């Protein structure tokens, strides 16, 4: 009898265990369908009071964000959290969820999570800080992760990790484009997984690169706009990226879509002029993917040449101080440049700042163009055949090959701007500072009194064709007058 009872009990327990396993598996599968991936927090509108959020799930569900001020979260978690409903849509076989939050308090740290209230499935807890409006802040900048394997995404994330370790007080992270290589779900998944720590705990400022915004490169359109929630400017195409702007402290940031610049649509060109001329911020910073000044392999290509003239004209006429770009996977920084030439009369003064001597360009004319260099493993050599006068305008130009990934740290402190560039060594992850440049402005910022330009899709199709043909002719002339002589001279020397 005992034996029978023991056997029956064993069988009963085995059945319970089996059903439990099935039940747990079903729950796990169900939960996996609604698991949050690719979560990020982005700049959206006014950084003092607004943020944007994006995440993905395998199955459709409700889109909810919960957030609480740090003081409340430490006491109550999300018990009394603000809940904001978002939207979802199917994109590339998954569901893209977005929430935009308004009414935040300036200079405040918030904790948040996103997910499904109905299914009670949530992301890891993230945090962000809102702009307090002060004249001092700092941010980090990387470019061109452009990986196609989990391993290389991870290596790039180690560069990002060392960047945030260097500046734990950075208030946002600028990514200058080419987040991925082939723009597949796998690549965006690997990017989201390896960069989760940074994308959820810092405000991200994304810039559209050609590898996530070029529908002619075997890529599906709309990827960039569906990975990030951004307050795009009216007229921004969305199909190949977006353009937008925001104020932070006493600085104005203008983010371009250089996929929309071959030639640059008149809508974006006019918007940029209006946006920069309309700002009275002390500092004006332009963020873009393709570089107007670079010693990388892409600088002589037709798309860059077509864009270069437009960008230089914009920067020269809108009082831009700093231009940050990517695309060319090497490091470069110019002197103060205006009219495609070095500002030879720039005056430099060495002063004590934060306990060390720093040399500042005093109220300089022109702008500084910088490529922080790739954070990824795909790195280019210095192109000594870069079109004139680019190399003459470069104060620093270095390859990152066999050295490491790179990042930049930028501090804005009242009338001072300090730009620093670093390499994270491949073998040891040690930092190597490769460059520093600083500007001091004693003059206040001011807006231009120029009349606004129309920012809708101005002109007819005929005018668009004329603009395109004009740009192409300009590229051909540039090749004939500048590049061809260089090629001929190079051949003779060889």
Quick recap:
This protein has eleven helices and 26 strands. By secondary structure, it is an alpha+beta fold.
Oligomer: single chain
Measured as a percent range, the helix fraction is 25-40%
CATH superfamily of the largest domain: Metallo-dependent phosphatases
Give the class-level CATH name of the largest domain.
Alpha Beta
Morphology call: globular
Q: Let me know the average pLDDT.
A: 88
The CATH topology annotation of the largest domain reads as Purple Acid Phosphatase, chain A, domain 2
Flag low-confidence runs.
1-29
List the helices and strands and how they pair.
Elements: H1 2-33, E1 37-42, E2 51-57, E3 64-69, H2 70-76, E4 82-85, E5 87-91, E6 94-101, E7 109-116, E8 121-122, E9 126-129, E10 136-142, H3 150-166, E11 172-175, H4 185-194, H5 196-201, E12 203-206, H6 210-213, H7 223-227, E13 244-248, E14 251-255, H8 266-277, E15 283-287, H9 302-316, E16 322-324, E17 331-334, E18 337-338, E19 341-342, E20 348-353, E21 356-362, E22 368-371, H10 390-393, E23 394-398, E24 404-413, E25 416-425, E26 431-440, H11 461-493
Helix pairs in contact: 3-4
């Amino acid at each position: 009898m005992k034996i029978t009872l023991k056997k029956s009990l064993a069988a009963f327990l085995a059945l319970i265990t089996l059903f439990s396993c099935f039940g747990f598996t079903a729950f796990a599968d169900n939960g996996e369908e609604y698991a949050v991936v690719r979560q990020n927090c982005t700049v959206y509108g006014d950084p003092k009071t607004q943020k944007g959020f994006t995440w993905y799930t395998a199955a459709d569900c409700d889109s909810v964000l919960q957030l609480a001020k740090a003081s409340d979260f430490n006491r109550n978690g999300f018990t009394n959290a603000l809940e904001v409903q978002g939207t979802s849509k199917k994109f590339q076989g998954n569901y893209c969820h977005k929430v935009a939050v308004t009414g935040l308090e300036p200079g405040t740290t918030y904790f948040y999570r996103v997910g499904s209230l109905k299914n009670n499935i949530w992301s890891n807890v993230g945090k962000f800080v809102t702009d307090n409006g002060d004249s001092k802040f700092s941010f980090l900048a990387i470019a061109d992760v452009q990986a196609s394997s989990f391993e290389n995404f991870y290596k790039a994330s180690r560069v990002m990790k060392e960047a945030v370790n260097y500046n734990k007080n950075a208030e946002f992270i600028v990514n200058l484009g080419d987040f991925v290589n082939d723009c597949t779900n796998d690549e965006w998944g690997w990017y989201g997984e390896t960069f989760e720590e940074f994308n959820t705990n810092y405000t991200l400022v994304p810039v559209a690169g050609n590898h996530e915004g070029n529908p002619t490169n075997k890529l599906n359109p709309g990827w960039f706009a569906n990975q990030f929630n951004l307050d795009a400017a009216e007229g921004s195409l969305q199909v190949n990226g977006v353009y937008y702007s925001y104020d932070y402290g006493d600085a104005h940031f203008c983010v371009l879509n250089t996929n929309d610049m071959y030639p640059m649509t008149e809508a974006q060109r006019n918007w940029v002029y209006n946006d920069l001329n309309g700002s009275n911020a002390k500092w004006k910073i332009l963020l873009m993917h393709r570089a107007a000044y670079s010693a990388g392999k892409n600088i002589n290509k037709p798309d860059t040449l077509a864009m270069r003239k437009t960008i230089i004209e914009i920067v020269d006429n809108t009082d831009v101080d700093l231009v940050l770009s990517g695309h060319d996977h090497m490091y470069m920084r110019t002197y103060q440049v205006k009219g495609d030439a070095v500002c030879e009369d720039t005056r430099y003064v060495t002063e004590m700042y934060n306990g060390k001597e720093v040399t500042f360009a005093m109220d300089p004319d022109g702008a500084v163009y910088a490529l922080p260099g790739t954070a990824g493993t795909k790195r280019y050599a210095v192109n000594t055949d870069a079109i004139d006068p680019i190399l003459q305008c470069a104060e620093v130009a270095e390859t990152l090959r066999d050295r490491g990934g790179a990042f930049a740290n930028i501090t804005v402190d009242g009338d001072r701007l300090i730009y620093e560039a670093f390499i994270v060594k491949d073998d040891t992850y040690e930092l190597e500072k490769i460059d520093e440049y600083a500007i001091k402005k004693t003059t206040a910022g001011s807006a231009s009194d120029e009349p606004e330009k129309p920012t809708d899709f101005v002109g007819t199709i005929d005018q668009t064709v004329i603009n395109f043909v004009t740009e192409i002719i300009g590229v051909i002339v540039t090749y004939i007058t500048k590049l061809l002589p260089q090629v001929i001279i190079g051949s003779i020397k060889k």
